[in-house]
Amino acid sequence: MPNTKVGMYDVDDSSAKDISSFPYLNPNEFSVACSAFLPRLHQSQLQAKLIYNESKIIVGIELVTWKVCDRAEITTVAHILLSPVYLLPTLYFTCTSTNDNGEYHPITLVSEVYEATSMTENIKSMMKAPSMLQFSSSGTISQCQHPLHDTVCFYVHPCHTGDVMSTINEDPEADSIGLDSYLAIWIGIVGGAVGITLKG
């Protein structure tokens, strides 16, 4: 069976679906999941690229989305990174607004993020799983220091992600979640909060 090269890791294709401690990912598994997810993002016509560290190992994915909101264009730059604490993918992002005059305005308040991304409505429609109902529209997004750039950004807190992924994986009618599908399912749970959705 051929091996897949992901950064400095060699991953046997026969084990590409296996996750050693589901729903938690180790850095190697996360790198493989990112590599497997990138083509799906491109199929959805999302601008996306892999993020590498100084050792040329995949450490995440960068996504850029645009949306027109009240005569302003909202640009969201999102990074999917592995939380070293939760061992789960975490969505870090920044939003900027550009008005009709070309004036650029970074969005710095959580309340502005909710408005710009329509998060309140998205949360109402997307939080179907029982454990996701523990989220509140005021507690899902927080500010933090970006783990790679050491700048202030927003992030979708991963504290309930493991429970939700486990609930989905236990569904007898659903396919087992592997590294090849992990991030596609995860983005369906988390990405909608900030307007990132997959097509098809």
- The Rg value, from CA coordinates, equals 17 Å
Range of strand content: 25-35%
Termini separation comes to 30 Å
Number of domains: 1
The CATH topology turns out to be Yope Regulator, Chain: A
What would the average pLDDT be, to the nearest integer? Answer: 78
Q: Briefly, what CATH class?
A: Alpha Beta
Instruction: Spell the H/E element sequence.
Output: EEHEEEEEHHEEHH
Shape summary: globular
- Structural class by sheet pairing and helices: alpha+beta
Low-confidence region ranges = 1-16, 122-139
Total strands: 9
Number of helices: 5
CATH architecture level-2 label: 2-Layer Sandwich
Helix content: 25-40%
Largest sheet: 7 strands, antiparallel
Question: Could you explain the architecture of this structure?
Answer:
- The structure is a single chain.
- The chain is of the alpha+beta class.
- The chain has a single domain (20-194), classed as 2-Layer Sandwich (Yope Regulator, Chain: A).
- Helix content is 26%, strand content 30%.
- The chain is built from five helices and nine strands, in the order ββαβββββααββαα.
- It has helices at 27-43, 110-117, 119-126, 161-169, 182-190; strands at 3-6, 9-12, 47-52, 58-69, 72-82, 89-98, 104-107, 141-145, 152-156.
- The strands form two sheets. Strands 3, 4, 5, 6, 7, 8 and 9 form a seven-stranded antiparallel β-sheet that branches.
- A hairpin with a 2-residue loop joins strand 1 and strand 2 (9-12).
- The longest helix is centred in the N-terminal third of the chain and has 17 residues, at 27-43.
- The chain starts with a strand and ends in a 10-residue tail after the last helix.
- Mean pLDDT is 78; it is low at 1-16 and 122-139.
